[in-house]
Amino acid sequence: MTGRRALYVAGVVVVCAWTVVPIYLLALGALGGSKTVYAWPKPFLPVGFAAENFTAFLHIAGIWPAMLRSVEVALMCMAFSIALGAPAGYALARYAFRGATVYRLVILLTRAFPVGILALPLAVSYVRLGLYDTPLGVALIHTALAMPFAVLISASLFLGIPRELEEAAWVFGCSGAGAFRRIVLPLALPGIAAAAIFAFVISWNEVFAATVLTVRNKTLTAYLLSVLSESPLQTQLAGGLLLILPSVFFIFLVRRYLFAMWGIASR
Amino acid sequence: MADIRIDAVRKSFGALEALKEVSLDVREAEFVALLGPSGCGKTTLLRIVAGLETQSGGRVLIGGRDVSALPPRARGLAMVFQNYAVFPHLTVADNIGFGLQMTRAPADRIRRQVERAAALMHIEALLTRYSAQLSGGQRQRVAVARALAVEPAVLLMDEPLSNLDALLRLEMRAELKSVLAAAGTTTLYVTHDQTEAMGLADRIAVMHEGRIVQIAPPVEVYRHPRTVFVGGFVGSPPMNFLRLAVTGGAVQLGTLALPAPAGRDGAVMLGIRPEDLALVGPEDGFGFRVQVAEPLGPHILATGEAAGQMMRVAIPPDHPVRAGESLHLRPDPARITWMDPDSGRALGAS
What's phi and psi for A145, nearest 5 deg? Predict the structure, then answer.
């Protein structure tokens, strides 16, 4: 094995460990119950199976309304991100306009401001606008967070659809909108669905903005943050495991399109 | 059926003038090839006729109707694209029927016309397939069938054969010619391949740097190029050009004296095709020193030097030629094109 190859493998191992080890420990504690959680050294596999962790978690008061609210917020975030992000992505992909490159960077810049800095002024304006403590308000800030990805993913999608196909549609009788509906949209739909799922996941996972901008109507993550500290460790772990499952599942589904966003050919 | 009239069309991209007042009439049922090197503006001109690009000035008339401001769909034309542009999410049948579908034609008429167009291009067996299941040649057939199915007044083709391999291209060329001649469709065809233009077109419009430099039937373009550029671009190998001095109404090509074109002084350019030079005895021709001899089958292509200038000659294959040899050649006087060495234009042509 050459030096470069060794470095490469080491890098892969570190990155995997970075994400996999915490999830592994989480799963271990959640599945194994109190015996595993407090055992040292940790067993490789959970000692027994403790379903009561999960039932205990699911019986925490207020968890179901919070989960529904999370879904509601995530669905709104998904709809807004696509409704605004897909046209922006189309414009980036198809039209050469002044400042397109700058625009592309500015889109990412929205991610450069930590929500922590924005939280106070946002909360103040939300109170003024009547958005404070509403699902819509949380959905809007989540949209702001998910939008850059929606724009970049859909831009790369539209770039992948040859211009000639649209032109052929125009020549053979379509208007601009007709060509988009009959040709571009059907071809882009799987990718747009992926961008939508990604927006859903971003909203589902987001905790900080949701905590700051709500009091009673908290989303699941924000609610758990305030409630779980009173639960035993294994119940917290069970909650954590349940919470990341949808994200892991969805991200796995759409991984191909996330690669496409960064321009890595995956087909 | 309709004629196309391109009237003083200009196009600039910022400071770049892609088209400088181009005018061209394509008669009804005529096949005109726009021929030129890349960047000469031929594709831009085709796209302006299609309505995919907006001209900076001038008009386009199809069948006497000014379509300059109309969107592509309202111009009554069909187009075959360089990369086929077969819709990947539709079957071959739906692709071919797409244009008719858009005109809300009755279903049985669509089916009939799709079948007819598919039969013309020999793709009846592929109607239920998708683009991804087709080879490049089959895709191109679908693209042509899609254009023929709408029975367009005008057919535009943008380098339709350039993505096919050489043998397939030859086959499709012959097929296209017979299908289009039978349909009698007015066709404007963009290509950078002079063989394709020569083989297909009724007339060739040779474009260079945003202008049409010559428009004429293929043989005339070949025999009587209007400019040095046309002579060099059309024909493979290109026409030979020798710069010669005029003294007393004659030019001296090595030991051979030729009458100079009337009224010329100073210098002229003699243009002659490689196959229009005959092997003769030492006293009847000029000396030619062979540097490279390439046996190509139908003839031997000899590259060498005459009167200190580079020249190519096609020599009959039964006459063995080797590098370093000296030959004597005589140009066919009827096939000589005299050019003005300064302007690069043919003498006697307007």
Answer: -75, -35
Is the Cβ–Cβ distance between B345 and B295 less than 8 Å?
no
Residues of B in contact with A167 (CB under 8 A): 50, 52, 72, 79, 81, 85
Nearest chain B residue to A185, by CA: B89
- pLDDT under 70: residue ranges of chain B: 349-350
The secondary structure of A125-174 as a DSSP string is HHHHHT-TTSHHHHHHHHHHHHHHHHHHHHHHHHHTS-HHHHHHHHHTT-
Q: Is the pLDDT of residue A12 over 70?
A: yes
**Over the Cα atoms of chain A, what is R_g?**
22
Task: Collect all residues of chain A within an 8 Å Cβ-Cβ radius of residue B72.
Answer: 167, 170-171
Dist CA A258 CA A74 (whole Å): 19
Contact call for B71 and A170, based on CB within 8 A: yes
Mutation target vs A (from B49, B79, B90, B158; most A CBs, 10 A cutoff) = B79
Please judge whether A164 and B99 are an interchain contact, meaning their C-beta atoms are less than 8 angstroms apart: no
CA dihedral A231, A233, A239, A245 (to 10 degrees): 170
- How much is the mean pLDDT over chain A? 85
* Chain B residues touching residue A178 (CB < 8 angstroms): 102
Beta B31-35 vs B203-208: how paired, if at all?
parallel
Q: Which residue has the tokens 């759409």?
A: A254
- Could you tell me which residues come within 8 angstroms of residue B38 by beta carbon, excluding any fewer than 6 positions away? B192
pLDDT at site A267: 38
Q: Residues in chain B whose beta carbon is closer than 8 A to a beta carbon of chain A? A: 50-52, 71-73, 77-79, 81-83, 85, 87-89, 98-99, 102-103, 146, 150
Residues A229, A231, A232, A233: what is their CA dihedral angle, to the nearest 10 degrees?
-40
Q: What is the pLDDT of residues A140-177, one digit of tens each?
A: 999 998 999 899 888 988 998 999 999 999 999 999 99
Q: How is residue A5 written in tokens? A: 């190859």
CA distance B233 to chain A (A): 29
